[in-house]
């Protein structure tokens, strides 16, 4: 199947956590629940779970993630949210609606966060384009 070179990258939902974090371990099932719900109606949306210690090189210079879970939401190449989130499925669902499904949501302007989106898309090719 040929890939459209003009296609927009898939919406991206990234959870930055740590294996040692109990909150992260508990939150992972909620993250998966939201993934299933969102992809039922928007299968192009990509969800990633990234361990901040295993992927420290990928995150650098944003290696000061201290609050878990920390979420990165991106539409196309634009980061729409980057920061800690209360570990509840309802909160993640609401953030996806507000930041990814609303075309008028503002993009973040921090260069380091925008560069992180590009690095994640390069490291995880399945996030680069919608199917």
Describe the structure.
This protein has 131 residues and is of the alpha+beta class. 37% of the residues lie in helices and 19% in strands. The protein is built from four helices and four strands, in the order βαβαββαα. The protein has a four-stranded mixed β-sheet, with helices on both faces. A hairpin with a 2-residue loop joins β3 (70-75) and β4 (78-84). α1 (22-41) packs across α3. The mean pLDDT is 89.
Task: Give the helix/strand layout.
Layout: E1 12-17, H1 22-41, E2 46-51, H2 56-59, E3 70-75, E4 78-84, H3 89-99, H4 111-123
Parallel strand pairs: 1-2
Antiparallel strand pairs: 1-3, 3-4
Short description:
With 131 residues, the protein is an alpha+beta fold.
Low-confidence stretches: none
Order of helices and strands: EHEHEEHH
> How much of the polypeptide forms β-strand, as a percent range?
15-25%
Q: Kindly report the average pLDDT value.
A: 89
| Main beta-sheet annotation | 4 strands, mixed
How many helices? 4
Relative helix content: 25-40%
Give the number of DSSP strands: 4
* Radius of gyration of CA atoms, rounded to a whole number: 14 Å
The largest sheet has its strands arranged as 2-1-3-4
Q: Which term fits the overall shape?
A: globular
Query: Given the helix and strand composition, which structural class is it?
Result: alpha+beta
The termini sit apart by 10 Å
Task: For the structure shown, list the relevant keywords.
single chain, 131 residues, alpha+beta, four-stranded mixed beta sheet
């Amino acid at each position: 199947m040929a890939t459209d070179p003009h296609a927009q990258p898939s919406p991206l939902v990234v959870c930055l956590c740590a294996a040692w974090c109990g909150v992260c371990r508990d939150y992972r099932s909620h993250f998966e629940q939201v993934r299933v719900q969102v992809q039922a109606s928007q299968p192009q949306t990509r969800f990633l779970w990234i361990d901040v210690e295993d992927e420290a090189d990928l995150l650098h210079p944003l290696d000061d993630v201290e609050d878990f879970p920390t979420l990165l939401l991106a539409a196309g190449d634009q980061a729409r949210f980057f920061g800690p989130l209360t570990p509840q499925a309802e909160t993640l669902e609401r953030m996806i609606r507000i930041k990814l499904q609303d075309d008028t949501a503002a993009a973040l302007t921090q260069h380091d966060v925008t560069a992180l989106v590009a690095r994640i898309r390069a490291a995880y090719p399945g996030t680069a384009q919608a199917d």
